[in-house]
Amino acid sequence: xxxxxxxxxxxxxxxxxxxxxxxxxxxxxxxxxxxxxxxxxxxxxxxxxxxxxxxxxxxxxxxxxxxxxxxxxxxxxxxxxxxxxxxxxxxxxxxxxxxxxxxxxxxxxxxxxxxxxxxxxxxxxxxxxxxxxxxxxxxxxxxxxxxxxxxxxxxxxxxxxxxxxxxxxxxxxxxxxxxxxxxxxxxxxxxxxxxxxxxxxxxxxxxxxxxxxxxxxxxxxxxxxxxxxxxxxxxxxxxxxxxxxxxxxxxxxxxxxxxxxxxxxxxxxxxxxxxxxxxxxxxxxxxxxxxxxxxxxxxxxxxxxxxxxxxxxxxxxxxxxxxxxxxxxxxxxxxxxxxxxxxxxxxxxxxxxxxxxxxxxxxxxxxxxxxxxxxxxxxxxxxxxxxxxxxxxxxxxxxxxxxxxxxxxxxxxxxxxxxxxxxxxxxxxxxxxx
Length: 434
Description:
It is a single chain. The chain has helices spanning 7-19, 23-36, 172-175, 188-200, 235-250, 279-291, 296-304, 351-364, 383-391, 414-429; strands spanning 40-41, 55-60, 64-69, 79-84, 89-100, 103-111, 124-133, 139-151, 179-181, 206-216, 221-223, 229-232, 257-262, 307-311, 314-315, 338-340, 369-371, 395-399, 401-403, 410-413. Strand 19 and strand 20 form a beta hairpin. It is built from ten helices and 20 strands. The strands form three sheets. It has a nine-stranded mixed sheet with strand order 1-2-3-13-4-14-18-16-17, sandwiched between helices. Strands 8-7-10-5-6-9 form a six-stranded antiparallel sheet, sandwiched between helices. The chain is an alpha/beta fold. The model has no long low-confidence stretch (mean pLDDT 96). The protein folds into two domains: 7-87 and 233-429, Zn peptidases (Aminopeptidase, 3-Layer(aba) Sandwich); 89-216, Aminopeptidase i, Domain 2 (Roll), CATH 2.30.250.10. Keywords: Aminopeptidase, Hydrolase, Metal-binding, Metalloprotease, Protease, Zinc.
């Protein structure tokens, strides 16, 4: 069988996807890789002392991250890449324990616009963030990742629902509680304590609160006779986070560059660490104060001299549902990154930012495509329009084409990973944005 293109890059990507079942894990893994590459960690509660030519990163809520490299001279512009760390899925409710028919189940709520049907009959793990209280009263947040298949959501047999293939609605409140254990008395807390002991050696702590989500433990896989496809959970949008990190680390470091990966995009971005919140704006103000002009006017000049590429996957032309695309705007998998356009500003691209990206792709010798949704269908959105609105930075939306967006398992092209990474690297290295 032929080896996948960009094999080393794809190997790193598969590892990142598997190790990042939640936004907290994704942010932790991105931070770890940045530190290994020489980026210095900043704390928002500290006074910053930034040095021209150095590289830094900062996190908020442990689920959003901003990394930046500074030029040797005064910071006059930034090449920004935006993505998001969260994906649709099933989150645990606070009082999750419930029992039915002699089984321990856990109550869930749906996070974001998840495609529900693919969640049935999957091997599910559990991951997220848990806050514990130590014996001395100290509170601590720790990451938890139960990688074993500890749960499943069983389908109802076709014999008991003859209409199952005729568009039956799914009720997540009553029909999607994962099954964990054959017991009519077991509860979640002892299980959490056991997992915390196994993973962190925390034997004498009290679980105070948690943010936990189920996920499919099936690892990412290369699919297709020539391994031209990558199948995995959370490609939307960890794939963009990965390509942003790759581009930042591959860039020459001559220009001011910034990567922001926000949490909560799938639920509207309205949070302190989301794109509608002040995280990016706060960082830009501090950059301007220390290595920019320092005034309010120079901050506006910095923003207007910069550019943001919002990276979020695009809908690829589906071989079984070709009628869901405008026939002139159906991006093909493995044919290059996609410029996303919408006249109603669901995407932030305009002709100026679109032309810039096309020119970048030309110089990088990367093919480029365009996506516009059908005029008789609605259109999703990204952090692009939100960031442009909140910050005012010239912005465009791009992404790699994929199938099954918001499913528990999505599919994208292996060659497209290299294409967009190459284009983003060229963007970060570009001396002029005009």
